[in-house]
Each structure stands twice: as C-alpha cells, then as structure tokens.
Design a protein that fits this description.
The complex is a heterodimer of chains A (176) and B (360). Chain A has 176 residues and is mainly α. Chain A is built from 10 helices and no strands. In chain A, helix 2 (32-51) packs parallel to helix 4. Classes of the chains: A mainly alpha (176), B alpha+beta (360).
C-alpha cells in the first residue's frame, strides 16, 4: 500500500499503527529520478499544508530535492532527509514571512479560499510551526510518532504532547 | 452531526492540489542544484582564505582605532569553548541538552555565511532605527511576497512590504538580476527606506558573478535618522558548533540555542526579529545588552544577545507570560564546560536522529 497519492484514511492509519507497521511504506526509490517521480507531488501537498501557499510549497519542495540531488550518494535515508528538508525549509519560510498572518490574506486562488471556507486552514495557521508540522506529518503524511520525532529533532514523547496540544487547539474549530 | 475526522479534512484541504512531477519541475530542481553547487564551490574556493584576510584586515583597522578591541575581535573561541548556560526555573524540566551543529545550508538566502551583510543603526542602540542590508549573488530566487508592493529601486523593479507598524522589507535585483539585495528595516518610514535603497551604489561597480563575498555589498552615503554603518565581522563557515537547551512546562516551551558563528550570526537573528511587528524592548541578560521581542500573534517571545564576541544566544519562549520571561532571565547562569557535558549526558537528544536522518 502506498501513500503516494496523499494521506492515509484515519482508520487505515490507526489500524496500521496498531499492527506495528512502519509508515510510510517503502518507496522502492533506487534512483533520484524514482524519488522525484514518486514523492514530488505528495511532498508539495505536505508543504502546502505547512506554508499555506502552493507557490511557496513548490519552492520548498524543489529546494529540498535540489539538496538531495547534491547529496544523493551520501544519503542512507533519502525520504527522511526529504521530510526534514521540507519541514525545515517551511519553518524558515514561516519565520521569515510570518505566514501565520498571511494565511488569511492569500485569497487570490480558489484553493486557499477553500482553506478559509473549511476553517481548518485558519486553525492550522494558528498553530506554532512545530506543532503544525507534527499534525501534518502525523495525520496527513501518516508518519509514525517516532519518525516525526526524528524529523523535528525532539523526543517521541514531545511529539505526543505536541499532537495532544495541537489537537486540543484544532478541536475548537473542527467541532464547530 | 459528527464532524469528519481530522485526516479526512486534511485530505480535503490538500489532495485537490495537482503538482505533478513534470519535466519543468525537474528542470527547476536541476537549476537549483547547479546554483547550490556553484555557490559551494565559490565558498570553498575563496571562503577560507578570504575570511582570514578579512579578519586580519579588520584586526589591523581595529589596532589603529581601538587597540583594546583587537584580541576579542580576532580570536574567537574554538567550537569547544562555546559558553554554556543553564536555567533553574521553578516547575520547568530540562528535556534536552544537546551539542549539535548549525545547518547553514537550510537558509541560503539568509545564511550569515553567504553573501554580505551590512548593518546600519545608531551607536549602541540595538532597538532604535536600523537597516540590515543583505547582498548576494543571484541563486535561489527570493520569492515575491503576494502582499508586497512594487517599487522602483536603482532602475529596477523591486518590492516593498510593510511587516509591522514601523518595519519594512525591501527586495530587488541589482546588476541586471545577477545579484539580489534584501533590506530589513525598522524605525524608518516607507519613504526613508525607499530613499535609502535608491541611494545605494555597488561597492564594486566592476563586480563579476558569481563573486566572492568581499566584493558584494553597497556604499551607503545617505543615512536617515542618525544611523551609521556598524562593523560586522563575517561568519566563519567552520564555526558551526551549537549548544541547545530545551525546557518544558505544560503548556510552555523554552528553547535556548548558542552558536559561535560571530557577529554576523547575531546581526542576522536581530535583523530578522526587528523586521516583524513584534514589540521590541532592550533588556539586560547576564550583563549583556539583549533584545526582547514579543510576537503578538502566537504568544511567543524571542530574546537574543551576544554572550561573548563570537557567541550568540537565542532564546525562544512559547506559551508563557511576561513574568516567566523575567523569571527565565533572572534564572540564567553560565556554567562550566564540564557542567554542560554533565547536563548533556543527563538530558540527551533523541538518539536515532543523527544515524537515520542526516541533518540537512
């Protein structure tokens, strides 16, 4: 089973985690081109949830792939590196441009309008960057907490508490 | 009615997004990789020798004007001599104490080890009117901000964005797009910032790109509100040691990061903080001049200061009030290297991180 088309459904996610299955499933990416073909679009979607703008999401992901291409022969876990690059670069962007504010202002394309209409977009934008990354990696990308801890460079227990707090913050909006 | 699960709602938000792995995207990645590779080659080829010359030159200049400052500005600490701090704050638990390394590659656009950084402010006034001027060879494009306004700068089309009541950022591409410039300004009007940018001349009019960092930069002779250019020693790419301390007390987090990358690192952090809509306040931390910024939108506080000539400390406090910030400041103590290593041993970072996911 692959998550290349996007996220796992919640039930699938829980069932697989309960079964101790490691996610995401192996990619079979033996070359950089394989990785690019299989992960480019899913990572743009992850980055979109992190930065709230399609153009900036593509910028983040292209930058991440460029760095991977340079280091390809030295990487033993290209996908882990890709996730970390995307998260770090997204955080750079958020820090620099304070997208938390502009999330609400990016109304020019239909998709971000949909974010606003859904209200989850606003709720995501209100989360601190690491909490937002934890939510997106866990509930959209379907990564296990241990892997998220590696990407965010925190303890697995911290991921758990970040998710708990983030969900409490999101719940107010989601349950409206 | 039961709301749909979070996973489904996130799917709805993102799965519509079509961003296929097209040949165009692949080419864009290739161009970026080539730019990164070129930049590294330039940095590797000229960085070390150039830095030595710059430091030597700076030392000679200082020797003439300020003999007492020479030693502190030329002899930064080795990575092993980073200062170490501890915090004894009621109810807070240290969750991580870690020796790590900076990841300069992640922020090429703003990396203090890349390009030139010039800082203008009133002497000894860290929170007054200021301009942080970055200049570097064109590489990764600085994205146009959707809320920025077009403005002519030096005969080219630049953009300006108001980032706070008295903060602006300006971006433009001097030298027919072969380089890019970026300003973070605070305490100046829009007109003053634009006038400043338009008054700049390239330091080396005959510059060829890609250029060594020493050739980058501008000559500024029309400075508003009494600001002056202050000397900023470039960052050494070899200095990438970082000490990080994380404390938690539900729902708050405190992260303290210490690097020894020198003045440019401090100024880069400071410029970033000042170019926000945060409330800025000069404070004193362990006897050092520091800048405290309260970020109005997310309950976050940032505190930055120079613990030594080379060492910059950045503390980020989230989920706390002002009284906790004051308590944090008063509870900070400098500890010995041995005490720090004990702290690291007692509060290690997650072990799997380095072995499975290399630091980007």
């Amino acid at each position: 089973m692959s998550i290349t088309g996007g996220a796992l459904a919640g039930a699938q996610l829980r069932a697989r985690e309960e079964a101790g299955e490691r996610m995401p499933v192996e990619l079979g990416a033996t070359t950089f081109e394989d990785l690019f073909r299989s992960r480019y679009e899913p990572m743009v979607r992850v980055a979109f949830l992190l930065v709230g703008s399609r153009a900036e999401a593509e910028d983040v992901v292209q930058d991440a792939f460029a760095r991977i291409e340079l280091r390809w022969t030295r990487l033993d876990n290209p996908e882990g590196y890709l996730h970390r690059c995307v998260v770090n670069r997204s955080h750079d962007m958020l820090r620099r441009r304070r997208l938390e504010q502009r999330f609400r202002l990016l109304h020019r394309d239909d998709r971000t309008s949909e974010l606003g209409a859904d209200e989850l977009g606003d709720a995501l934008a209100s989360l601190a960057p690491k909490r937002r990354a934890a939510v997106v990696l866990r509930y959209y990308a379907g990564l296990p907490e241990r892997e998220i801890a590696e990407i965010l460079r925190v303890r697995p227990g911290t991921v758990k508490s970040m998710l708990h707090r983030a969900l409490a913050q999101l719940r107010e909006v989601i349950e409206r | 009615m039961t709301p749909p699960p979070l996973e489904d709602r996130l799917n709805r938000l993102a799965d519509h997004l079509a961003a296929p792995a097209t040949p165009d995207a692949r080419q864009a990645i290739g161009r970026r990789a080539a730019t990164l590779r070129r930049r590294r080659q330039v940095r590797t080829a000229v960085g070390g020798g150039l830095l030595a010359l710059l430091v030597l030159g700076g030392a000679m200049a200082l020797q003439i004007d300020h003999p007492a400052d020479v030693e502190t500005d030329t002899a930064g600490p080795t990575p092993g001599s980073l200062p170490a701090l501890a915090v004894d704050l009621d109810g807070w638990q240290i969750t991580t104490a870690e020796n790590t390394t900076a990841t300069p590659d992640m922020s090429d656009v703003y990396d203090p080890a890349s390009g030139s950084l010039q800082v203008f402010r009133r002497p000894d006034d860290l929170t007054g009117p200021s301009v942080f001027l970055h200049h570097q060879a064109a590489g990764d494009a600085i994205l146009e901000d959707p809320t920025a306004q077009s403005v002519p700068i030096g005969g080219t089309q630049g953009s300006i964005q108001q980032t706070g009541p008295e903060s602006f950022t300006v971006r433009w591409a001097p030298a027919q797009g072969d380089s890019q410039a970026y300003i973070e300004a605070r305490g100046l009007t829009r007109g003053e910032v634009v006038h400043f940018a338009n008054s700049l001349g390239l330091k080396d009019p005959d510059i060829q790109y890609p250029a060594a960092d020493a050739k980058l930069g501008f000559v500024a002779d029309q400075l508003p509100k009494g600001i002056q250019e202050v000397s900023v020693t470039p960052t050494s790419p070899d200095r990438n040691a970082v000490r990080q301390l994380v404390l938690e007390r539900d729902p708050g987090t405190i992260e303290v990061t210490i690097d020894d990358r020198g003045e440019a690192s401090f100024e880069t952090y400071l410029g970033e903080l000042l170019a926000t809509d945060g409330d800025v306040e000069p404070v004193s931390v362990l006897g050092h001049r520091a800048v405290l910024v309260e970020h109005p939108n997310d309950g976050r506080w940032s505190l930055v200061w120079r613990q030594t000539d080379a060492a910059t400390v950045v503390a980020t406090l989230t989920g706390v009030g002002r009284s906790t910030v004051d308590d944090f400041v008063s509870s900070l103590v400098e500890i010995s290297d041995d005490e720090w290593q004990d702290l690291v041993a007692a509060h290690p970072a997650p072990a799997a991180t380095e072995s499975t996911v290399p630091a980007p």
